[in-house]
Amino acid sequence: MTPGRDEQVVVALRTAARALARRPGIRDLEETLRQIVASAVVTVPGADAASISMTREARVETRHPTREAIRALDETQSELGEGPCISAIEDPPASGVVVAQDFAGEDAQRWPRFAPRAVEAGYRALMSTRMATDDSLRAALNLYSATPHAFDDDDRVLAGLFGVQAGLALYGAQQVQHLQRAVDSRDLIGRAKGVLAERFGVDDESAFRMLVTSSQETNMKVTAVAQWVADSAGSKAAAPPE
User: Fold this and answer.
1) Which residue from 88, 140, 174, 211 has the least number of CB within 10 angstroms?
2) Closest of 92, 40, 99, 105 to residue 66, by C-alpha
């Protein structure tokens, strides 16, 4: 990459990183991802539009498209089960970057059902890079171009960097969610143990064993049993969970 482009991508990534550090919430994560997508379009010379594709319940959703036409093309790939976005998510190369240089040319046979849709929508090239996430969440950053052969080797490197940055943002948010759920579960179980200790005159350890035993016998999660106990705290004679 040329020095000017090196500086551009570093500035863009630093800006996105600072935004993520200041905004740990889910809504703020979405704003961070939106900024990453917008920055990628500005920084990668061949890109005219961009989006993020993300798996959810066996379907690929589009997030933060810079144009509505891109949302439609992403959804078309999901419906057809083919396209660079799908390949980057499901079967990426070692680099994580999948490039279609010309949907009206050499790539028409590679994605025979999607290619005509892309050309019809005015886009001839598409570069998708797998975002660096864990196996529980698969996603890709997509860069569309109206110009065939718009992406060179430097663009691939830039797309890969933006994909890593977006993936780290998602991974960080996932960890925050997991930690928050763990804290919430601990607090819920603590309240339930307190209810059982008061109601049955047992100590903390025995109250927890009661929750675990009830969980095993009812085939409910411990947190579900704890929630039932907490909800029944106002009743003097609660019925056992079904």
Assistant:
1) 174
2) 40
- Same domain? For 71 and 156 the reply is yes
CA terminus-to-terminus distance, the chain: 64
- CA atoms of 173 and 57, how far apart (whole Å): 19
Reported in sequence order, the residue ranges of the chain that DSSP labels E, i.e. its strands, are: 49-56, 59-63, 97-100, 125-130, 139-145
Number of structural domains (the chain) is 2
Torsion over CA: 118, 122, 125, 129 (sign):
negative
How does pLDDT run across 108-156, given as a tens digit for each residue? 999 999 999 999 999 999 999 988 655 666 889 999 999 999 999 888 8
Q: Which helix (DSSP H) or strand (DSSP E) does residue 6 occupy?
A: helix 3-22
Q: Which domain holds residue 217?
A: 178-234
Distance CA 238, CA 118 (A): 61
Residues 6+ apart with CB under 8 A from 30: 63, 64
Q: Calculate the alpha carbon distances from 154 to 17, 43, 195 in Å.
A: 22, 11, 62
Q: Among the three residues 124, 150, 174, which one is the final residue of a domain in this structure?
A: 174
Residues 81-106 as b or e (16 or more Cβ within 10 Å = b): ebbbbbbbbeebeeebbbbbbbbeee
**pTM (global) more than 0.85:** no
